[in-house]
Amino acid sequence: MANKEEVNKQMDILLKSNMNKIQNKILVLSNKGGVGKSTVSVNVAVCLSKKGLKVGLLDADIHGPSVARMLGFEGKKLQNGPNGIVPYEASPGLVAVSMAAVLGNIDTPVIWRGPMKAVAIKQFLAEVDWGARDYLIIDSPPGTGDEPLSICQLIKDLNGAIVVTTSQEVALLDSRKCINFLRELKIPIIGIVENMSSLLCPKCGEKIDVFSSGGAENTARDMGIPFLGGIPFDPEIVKSSDKGELLVETHPESKAVNVFNNICDSIGASTKNNK
After folding, report:
1. Which of 1, 104, 140, 178 could hold 31 in an S-S bridge, CB 3.0 to 4.6 Å?
2. pTM (predicted TM-score)
3. Whole-angstrom distance, CA of residue 79 vs CA of residue 82
4. At 3, is the pLDDT very low, low, confident or very high (cuts 50, 70, 90)?
5. Is the pLDDT of residue 210 over 80?
6. Spatial distance between the Cα atoms of 88 and 230, rounded to a whole number of angstroms
C-alpha cells in the first residue's frame, strides 16, 4: 500500500510540473458522438501552431482514438525519452499523443472500466514530455462521464472548454447538458461550435442545410455563451482526415479553415490574460 501511495504521490508531482509548463489548457467536448469533435480539435490545434504557437494535442478518447489517423501517426509507437514519453511531432510547433500510438494493433479494442481509463489519462498528462507549450488541446470522448470528468479534476486550472455540436435537435439537446456539466464543474466556456453546418452544392453553389442550421447559434443565445461559428460540410475535411493530411496546408482557401482560424482567435481572446 505504501508503494502505491508513493507512486501516486510521484505521479501527482509530475502532473503538476508538466501542467505548470503549459500556459493554456483547453478541453474540446460534446455530449454526442459523431458530431466532429476530433475534427475540430485537430484543426484548431493545427491552426494555433500555424500562428507560431507551441501546441500539444492530447487524444483522451481511450476507446475510439482518431487523432493519430488524422495527423498521420497511426501505427507509430510512442517512444520513451530522458524526460518521459516523447509525443509525436505532427508539424512544426505541434506535438500529439493518442492511445492509437500505444496499441500494438489498430483493431485492438480497449476493454477497460472507468478507473483504468482515469489512470491512463493521468499518465498521458503526467508522463508525456510535453515541454513548454502555449496550448494543450484535449480532445475528450463524447459524454459527461469518466474521461471528461477525470480531465476536469486532474487539471485544476483548465482555461476553458469548447462544445461541439451539429444543428440536429437531438445533438443540441445533449449539448445543453454538456454546457451545464461544465457549469457544475465551474469550467469557463469559450463557446459552442456548429459542425457540418451546411453543404454548398459543387455544381450550382446552392446552400443545403443537411442537418438544418442555426441551431447552435440559438442554443448559444439561450444558454448565454458565445457562438464560435458554423463549420461547413466540406468533403475535403473528410479526405484530409482519412489521409492524415492537414487541411490548412492542402486547402488553405477552404471556408472551413477560415472558421477554424476564427475559433483560434476566440480562444486567444479568452486566454490572453494567461500569456
Report:
1. 178
2. 0.93
3. 10
4. confident
5. no
6. 30
Cα(219)–Cα(217) distance, integer angstroms:
5
Q: What is the pLDDT of residue 238?
A: 86
Q: How far apart are CA 226 and CA 162, in angstroms?
A: 10
Contacts of 244 (CB under 8 A, 6+ apart): 69, 70, 71, 72, 73, 74
3 state SS of 229: strand
Q: What is the dihedral of CA 266, 253, 248, 205, to 10 degrees?
A: 90
For position 270, what pLDDT does the model report?
92
Q: For residues 170 and 261, give the distance between their C-alpha atoms in angstroms, rounded to a whole number.
A: 27
Cell of 12: 501527482
Q: Which three cell numbers stand for residue 91?
A: 508539424
Residue ranges with strand state E in 166-211: 189-194, 199-200, 207-208
When the pLDDT of each residue in the chain is averaged and rounded to a whole number, the result is: 91
Q: Residue 253 is which amino acid? A: E
How far is C-alpha 44 from the geometric centre of its chain's CA atoms?
8
The residues facing 139 across adjacent strands are 28, 59
CATH code: domain 11-274 is: 3.40.50.300
Neighbours of 224 (CB within 10 A): 8
Q: With 0-12 CB in 10 A as exposed, 13-18 as middle and 19+ as buried, what is 161?
A: buried
Contact in structure between 215 and 174 (CB atoms under 8 Å): no
Pairwise CA distance, residues 157 & 148, whole Å? 14
Q: Rounded to an integer, what distance in angstroms lies between the CA atom of residue 62 and that of residue 155? A: 18
Domain boundaries, the chain: 11-274
pLDDT tens string 64-111? 999 999 999 988 888 999 999 999 999 999 999 999 988 867 888 899
